[in-house]
Amino acid sequence: MADIDIQVDAQSLAEAVAHKSVAIMQAAIEETGSCRWVLAGGSTPVLAYQYIADNLLSEVDWSKVTILIGDERIAPLDSDQSNWHQADQALLKQIPQAKQMRPRSNLELADAVDDYHLALEKLPADLSGYPIFDLVWLGIGEDGHTLSLFPGSPNLDNNSSLILPVEDSPKPPSERLTFGLSALRATQHLLVIAAGSSKAEVVASAQSSDELPIAKAASTVEQAGGQVDWLIDEAAGQRL
Ligand code: 6PG
Question: What is the pLDDT of residues 96-138, one digit of tens each?
Fold first, then answer.
């Protein structure tokens, strides 16, 4: 069963996400000598990226960390629409020691998907061949989407591809690449992060649904033996 940590506001949430993430990364490095961290897109994670950059940079041996992202929009690399560019501005440019596995989202969609898929296949994997991620951050859309997996998408039924193309995202821009659910099959620790009253309905629904993409992602990790923690602020938790 997932744990739900409710923080008073978005800044306290960012600090809780940052401290928990650093502890998970430290433990992974201590235990295995490395850590693979999958970032989340959207705006919610930015405060947590910034808090790590401002307060916790010295707490992690970033040379032992490989950084990826769970989904990316097809856009120029320096575009404000780029999830990676957003994380780079907030944190990544301050940790050049980390191995940064950025999707080549400036390519044509099919090429970007193939390229990122090949990169994931080279990562350390479990006995079933799924890439092992020590820490994954996921955001939630108001419709319950996560990554770029949207309600009703046939991508939700794809149980084999690690990386999938999206050509018709209801959340602009329309072209994206995304982790498929199978990419989460060897996730050790998932943090689901949500802030604001606009997420209250979907956060509450996701606790009892197995249909919403975010619920499918969380159950994929739990069924594989991973730990799932929901970190939300009071506004996002007001319907619980
Ligand atoms: C994206 C994200 C998406 C995001 C949610 C929440 O590329 O848009 O990956 O899944 O996490 O839509 O977005 P906000 O944090 O901005 O509400």
Answer: 999 999 999 999 999 999 999 999 999 999 999 999 999 999 9
Backbone dihedral angles phi then psi of residue 84, each to the nearest 5 degrees: -65, -45
Q: Is 41 in the pocket of ligand 1 (CB under 6 A)?
A: yes
- Residue 24 near ligand 1, beta carbon < 6 Å: no
Distance CA 215, CA 140 (A): 10
The per-residue pLDDT for range 61-110, each reduced to its tens digit, is 999 999 999 999 999 999 999 999 999 999 999 999 999 999 999 999 99
SS3 state at 56: helix
Amino acid at residue number 163: I
Q: What gap in Å lies between CA 27 and CA 90, rounded to an integer?
A: 24
Give me the phi and psi of 71, to 5 degrees please: -160, 155
Task: Check: pTM over 0.85? Answer yes or no.
Answer: yes
Return the pLDDT at 209: 87
Residue 5 parent element (H or E): strand 3-7
Residue 115: CB partners within 8 Å, gap ≥ 6? 103, 104, 107
Give, for ligand 1, the residue of 86, 148, 177, 197 to mutate: max count of ligand atoms closer than 8 Å to Cβ: 148
Virtual torsion, Cα 2, 82, 163, 118, nearest 10 deg: -120
